Amino acid sequence: MLAATAVRRPASPPVFIGARIYRGSSYGGKHPLAIPRVPTVIDLCRALGWLPQAAYRASPRAKPKALAAFHTPRYIAALRRAERAQSVSDTTRARFGLGTLSNPVYPEMYRRPATSVGGVLFGASLIAKGGVAYVPGGGTHHGMADRANGFCYFNDPVLAILSLRGQGLNRIAYVDIDAHHCDGVEMALSGHEGVRLVSVHEEGRWPFTGALDDTGGGVAFNLPVPRNLNDTEYQMILDRFILPAVADFRPDAIVLQCGADAVLEDPLSRLALSNNCHWATVAALRPLSDRLLVLGGGGYNPWSVARLWAGVWATLDGRVIPDHLPEAAQSVLSGLRWHRQAGQSPPAHWRTTLRDPARHGEIRDIVRRRIDWLCGRLKAGTS
Questions:
Q1: Active site residues
Q2: pLDDT digits 0-9 by tens, 36-61
Q3: Which of 91, 87, 84, 95 is nearest to 147 (CA)?
Q4: Distance (Å, rounded) from C-alpha 259 to C-alpha 310?
Q5: What is the value of pTM for the model shown?
Q6: Interior CA angle at 63 toward 61 and 31, to 5°?
Q7: Angle at 294 (CA atoms; ends 325, 331), nearest 5 degrees
Q8: What percent of the chain has pLDDT over 90?
Q9: Is the pLDDT of residue 382 over 70?
């Protein structure tokens, strides 16, 4: 069942990759990413005694040459200029998608995403000979080669996959359970031999890509799901679609984008999952390859993001998730503020627990039919 996450200690200890730049850095104003995310996960894991110094690595910042493995030099240069000037021209805004409501100008608009990429590339290098790396600051799956898109300035999943391939790993499975389709990843890797993309995302949700019959040049298996997707439906998706799609591919490495916006409390989706679904996915994918790179992604409720991503680390590191948080961990969660909750107290369980209550329900026919269709593709071996 979804609630039964593994607590077996991994053979080789996983590595948690973070950076100071996330602390105090914000997209500004009331942007959905004006909330603390990675720092809260780090603080919460430390308060629980789950993040000793030996498990933590500081992320380097990716250099322009590393970014240019996917992004164009002109775009990289435009982003660096925008950070220095803290403004963009109308021409730059139109050409590169910088200085928009989604991708605003802010003080660390180049250094922060370059650090995210640096952490993900560092993680890819660490797992190349086997192992697990967790980079919650990664997962920016909407970034395009020559423009910012959907809160994403760079596309670290694409750069991670290209890096792993460059290190001699021939078969990379990319799994994305963010509420939003991984349009930037699919566009970049469409038709690439040796890559399999598996995405579960809300239908009718921005960026409005990832249709059921969209095969990404033969490499993509897209499952758009209806609103109010519940844990029971997700369990079927995991067992009958995600795991067979990955196992059938026999990957040398798995990259999991573990966006936290598919849970019930997130303001930018209309799905109804509990965080148990994400933890179950992490636990189930771990045995399918000697190499696992887990990234963050979406997530716009600071409490649900912190609790979900801390639980991801617990699952990777074989930690027992307590039913009730100790005082130090509660203090971290009690200190969070969110403009959507102004003047209101968050529900008690957002501060006192990590695990959501299971959100079971009926399995709708549309979910069954779509799973069956994708299973048919897998069995037929069709692209």
A1: 142
A2: 999 999 999 999 999 999 999 999 99
A3: 95
A4: 13
A5: 0.96
A6: 55
A7: 20
A8: 93
A9: no
